[in-house]
Amino acid sequence: MSKVSKPLPLFRLPTLLLTKIIRYMDLQEILLISLASKKSGFIMRSLLPRNWFNLKLLFYIKETEIVLGAKGPWAPVRVKYENGGDLFKLQITQRLENVFYQWAGPQLQDPVKLLLTHFATVFNPTISIYFGDICNQEFVMDVLPLLKQLNLSVKVLKFWDAQISPETYKYVLDEYREVSELWLFCKISSDFEYRAGPDFRVDNFRVGEGHWMHLEDFVNCKEVAVYNHHQHKQPKYANLEEPRALIRKWIESECQLELFTVSSFPDKFDFRLVLQGQGLRTIEQTFSSHSVEIIRRSDGKKALVTCKWGFFELKVID
Amino acid sequence: MTSPASSSEVKYLIESSEGNTFDVSGAALRQSNTFNAMFLNIGADGPIPFTDYNEATLKKVFEYCEHSVNEENYSGPKHQDDLSKWDLNFFNEMDQKMFIDVINASNFLDIERLTSYCCERIARMLRGKNTQEMIKVITLPTAEELEAKQKVEEKKAAAAKKVAEKAAETAEKTETLEELPVQQLVQTTRNKLTRKYLSFSNE
Lengths: 318, 203
What we know:
The structure holds two protein chains of two kinds. By secondary structure, chain A is an alpha/beta fold. Chain A folds into two domains: 12-129, no CATH class; 165-318, no CATH class. Chain A has seven helices and 15 strands. Chain A has a 15-stranded mixed beta sheet. The longest helix of chain A has 14 residues, at 109-122. Chain A is elongated and about 85 Å long. In chain A, 36% of the residues are buried. Chain B folds into two domains: 11-137, Potassium Channel Kv1.1, Chain A, CATH 3.30.710.10; 143-202. Helices cover 59% and strands 6% of the residues of chain B. Chain B has a three-stranded mixed beta sheet. In chain B, α3 (55-67) packs across α5. Chain B is globular and about 55 Å long. Chains A and B meet through α1, α2 and α3 of A and α5, α6, α7, α8 and α9 of B. Chain B: This is Skp1-related protein.
């Protein structure tokens, strides 16, 4: 065994031994061996534990990389991005920048799709994907449907300055209504309309440009933050009725909402007006802020509603 | 040949696939969990048949066990860089076929230390290599081989199931383990291990 004379028939060993062997391998080695052929990919899949892997994909000008992580002792594998002029490349590298494997294509989505397909087959990871400033409409709509097609579970989906159409924006709201984190920080036209149903249950939902939002629609999310980043003069929610409807809905339903913050800045709508004449118990009132306590009918749970110039917050406290 | 309260001086006779027998000390043999499960408490009157493995392989495996008798309790695999000169020689003097036979026998005998070293050694053969280099180190199976392997495993599983059912029936009839003949004990333990292996594979 000191000198390897001929290839080792590794995959003829019993499955139990193969399972032990891969525990001694780095995740990168497992990935590389799975890339040797379609068959070795399937074998590695059968040896790997289920529900252990997660894949984080970041697409920003300053930082584009893909990271395969795992539970247990395996260190994450970083797939680097390189834009080599005509070719977009995703590379697995080793020390001294040796390229061990690469996916490449004339458009960024080409290597990304190849990589996703392979990772889905072998690792079936959960997905966290960050569509940043290098993403356009075509890229997003090439990647998102593929995730569905590969039956990958998306946990985190964030858009930050990605250019997407209203149709894609709506597609995201329709298709990813139960993810852990959904952040939509991208431009959306002033006339965009959307109503979310009670099955919209994102744990952490943040919207950079929330002018289109009916606040009460999102009461089944756990945490919601709404901003007015693109400075719409009159966001739909900056009026008396929208926050009041949210408060009423929280009092009357059994929703899972824990925190809802709304900012209309730079529009300085006076949210304190929302609380006037509603017969709610004031907890604190200062020159700039008004806080009231509300109690849910069904279970007596309490929440604190705080209103300021340009700011509204509903926070469950008990 | 043995007594239940065996000391390190107690020798056991091991029978290989060729029908040859040779001595192994109780202390060495106790590193095998398979042996412990079968014979430790009840002893064995006659050669212990490990007849799926040839004499050379079994001798090699028990050479390792004899050597590591006095090593401290096993606490996970050593890093290969920490292996002693003796350990390195032990691995280096094996050809590939012997190495494969040894790892398979060690796996069956459930000798944790040796199996772990072998597994780590294989993992190290792939370390620092790219996919193309890995292909030179390992043989990738053809579709036919994969299919054949699957068929063999299915066949083995079916046979093991059949034997296990039969053994369960026999066990019901037999009041104590001591009354079981050695061959049947070996078979019963094999069945148990096979079931364990199958359940692990299906996880």
